[in-house]
């Protein structure tokens, strides 16, 4: 009798998954990854974005939650190392039957570089189009107006990062230290950044990172032209400061990373897989109309 109940439950669950997949069969699911100072499900942020996408595109949308509660998810944006987060998310997504046939992914702020890390490291994640909104692909050097419940918290983070970003303690303790990119000390950054320097192939070329990134149909990067949080602005398009100073910036195509094609981005550009979009708002400030016009074509 117990066995009969088990198989009834198993086939009922399987049938439910099949029926749900049929509802969304026309379009790929979407995975969202929130940024610093946010969570998966706040109704005024990603919770609202999820409902917007579900209602307007009619797809299954999964908003990544790190931990077992909203509080844990919020703290993860500051205190759970990106390497650990990516490992957890890779395992979680591989168990979601709705994502078996591939999905599109949208990263918000630091969630953008985390999703790119997922694409490069997680072979089971079949991402078709990667969209990053205000992502910091070459890192940051400064945290002006950082999103936090307390401005005092932001000030403390800034002070810590300015003086001790590449210490083992800070690299393990504070998420933002793992993508802190000091243009005045490139050698130290490349040797002691425990996340960004790795996924950007700074010390040596991990060919699996290159190969996995090449599998994308499109890598869409959105830059917010009036951003007061991300510094420098150009990192959202994979640009950064010219090495050795923190005043003059350069675009992706001027960088050594692109010229030597250490990450395969030159090849992706040749294949028309890199897309650079602008939004005139502040950090992550966009309208539904802008989102429909600029991004729906990569999600439909």
TrEMBL record:
One of its GO terms (cellular component) is lysosome. Residues 1-25 form the signal peptide. The keyword Disulfide bond applies. It comes from the Eukaryota. It is an enzyme of class 3 (hydrolase). The keyword Iron does not apply. Keywords: Disulfide bond, Glycoprotein, Hydrolase, Signal. One of its GO terms (molecular function) is palmitoyl-(protein) hydrolase activity. Its EC number is 3.1.2.22. It holds the Pfam family Palm_thioest. GO terms for biological process: receptor-mediated endocytosis. It catalyses: S-hexadecanoyl-L-cysteinyl-[protein] + H2O = L-cysteinyl-[protein] + hexadecanoate + H(+). Belongs to the palmitoyl-protein thioesterase family. This is Palmitoyl-protein thioesterase 1. It comes from Anopheles maculatus. The lineage of its organism: Eukaryota, Metazoa, Ecdysozoa, Arthropoda, Hexapoda.
């Amino acid at each position: 009798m117990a066995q009969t109940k088990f198989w009834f439950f198993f086939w009922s669950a399987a049938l439910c998954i099949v029926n749900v997949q049929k509802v969304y069969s026309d379009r790929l699911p979407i995975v969202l990854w929130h940024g610093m100072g946010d969570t998966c499900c706040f109704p005024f942020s990603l919770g609202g974005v999820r409902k917007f996408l579900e209602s307007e595109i009619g797809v299954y949308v999964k908003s990544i939650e790190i931990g077992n509660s909203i509080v844990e998810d919020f703290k993860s944006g500051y205190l759970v190392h990106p390497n650990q987060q990516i490992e957890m998310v890779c395992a979680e997504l591989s168990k979601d039957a709705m994502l078996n046939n591939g999905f599109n992914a949208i990263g918000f702020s630091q969630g953008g570089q985390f999703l790119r890390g997922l694409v490069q490291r997680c072979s089971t994640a079949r991402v078709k189009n990667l969209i990053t909104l205000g992502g910091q692909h070459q890192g940051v050097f400064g945290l002006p107006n950082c999103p936090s419940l307390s401005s005092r918290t932001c000030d403390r983070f800034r002070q810590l990062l300015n003086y001790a970003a590449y210490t083992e303690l800070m690299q393990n303790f504070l998420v933002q230290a793992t993508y802190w990119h000091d243009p005045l000390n490139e050698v130290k950054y490349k040797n002691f950044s425990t996340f960004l320097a790795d996924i950007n192939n700074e010390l040596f070329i991990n060919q699996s990172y290159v190969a996995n990134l090449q599998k994308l149909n499109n890598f869409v990067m959105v830059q917010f032209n009036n951003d007061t949080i991300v510094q420098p602005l150009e990192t959202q398009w994979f640009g950064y400061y010219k090495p050795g100073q923190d005043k003059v910036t350069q675009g992706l195509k001027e960088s050594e990373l692109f010229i030597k094609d250490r990450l395969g981005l030159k090849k992706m550009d040749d294949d028309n897989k890199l897309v650079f979009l602008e939004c005139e708002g502040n950090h992550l400030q966009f309208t539904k109309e802008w989102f429909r016009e600029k991004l729906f074509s990569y999600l439909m």
